[in-house]
Amino acid sequence: MLCTSPQLQSSTHAQSSSKGPSAAASMSNSERVVLALGGAGTVGSGIVKALLDKGFKVAVISRESSRLERLQSFVSPSTKENLTTLVGDVGSEGGVETVKQALLKAVGKVTDVVSSLGFSWWQGGPPHTQSVKDLHWVVETLLFSTFVSWKAFFPLVRDDSSSTYTFITGGAGEKLLMPGTGFLTVGAASTLAFCQVLREEYPEVPCKLNQVKINAGVGTPGRMAPGFLDHLELGEAVAALVERRSPSHSVVTINCPADLKTVCLERSL
User: Fold this and answer.
1) pLDDT at 9
2) How far apart are the C-alpha atoms of 75 and 6, rounded to whole Å?
3) What is the pLDDT of residue 248?
4) Which of 86, 120, 161, 238 is deepest in the core (most CB within 10 A)?
């Protein structure tokens, strides 16, 4: 896989400078509470561990308590007290409102959101072998859950210039990865389009609204393939971006492992 420097693209409607310094702008990591949507997944777990290791408080919501238990055992033992886990559904309007109230009761506030919802792989076959139900499931998992959770949690951070909302997306939305993965491309493309719409519709929102687009596979150390990114190294890069409060309305494109190191080393993008 061709390895290039991580690309940073900004919307033509770049965020204007804040009207005044936020009182929370000097918050330390320990004062920040990151809601990691999809934090119990392969990509999300690496991000959660990295955020905790940097001293952030992190909250994770999952429909499966077993996944939350695995996450608890995966993170560094010394950081477990800073991890809050809740069982809930962020993909349905009713479910997300219920778990949102439980979240705020548990952590008090949310200062940052990282959204890595969806699934890592789909290879169900060519379109003519699929049903409308299959397509609906893919779009619901990749797009609807991203939209529903954004609508619920974005209001918690949107008006604070010291807050961030970061979407993790994939390059599958721009190309067919291999025969039989077409519906994955359709769903991923919908999410990419949604992120673009948000950058254009909210050009001057105070919250730092950004996207990390991953053009490679992601795996755990024990399940790597040529060209894959280690989810721990990816997590460190995303955590660095959250910590840095990157310029808003940007798209950071990751093509290979070397890009992750560049992101971590960059003091300013």
Assistant:
1) 57
2) 27
3) 93
4) 238
Cβ proximity of 212 and 168 under 8 Å: yes
Sheet holding 250-254, edge to edge: 7-10, 250-254, 208-214, 164-170, 112-115, 33-37, 57-62, 83-87
Distances in Å between the Cα of 101 and the Cα atoms of 84, 88, 109, 136, 190 are: 14, 11, 11, 28, 28
Contact 103, 110 (CB under 8 A): yes
The answer to whether the CB of 40 falls within 8 A of the CB of 62 is yes
The 3-state secondary structure of the chain reads CCCCCCEEEECCCCCCCCCCCCCCCCCCHHHCEEEEECCCCHHHHHHHHHHHHCCCEEEEEECCHHHHHHHHHHCCHHHHHHEEEEECCCCCHHHHHHHHHHHHHHHCCCCEEEECCCCCCCCCCCHHHCCHHHHHHHHHHHHHHHHHHHHHHHHHCCCCCCCEEEEEEEHHHHCCCCCCCHHHHHHHHHHHHHHHHHHHHCCCCCCEEEEEEECCCEECCCCCCCCCEEHHHHHHHHHHHHHHCCCCCEEEEECCHHHHHHHHHCCCC
- Tell which residue, 20, 12, 11, has the closest CA to residue 206: 20
Question: And the tokens for 227?
Answer: 């060209």
pLDDT value, residue 172: 85
Distance CA 15, CA 17 (A): 6
Residue-level pLDDT at 1: 40
Give the type of residue at 261. K
Low-confidence ranges of the chain (pLDDT < 50): 1-5, 10-24, 268-269
* pLDDT score recorded for residue 6: 57
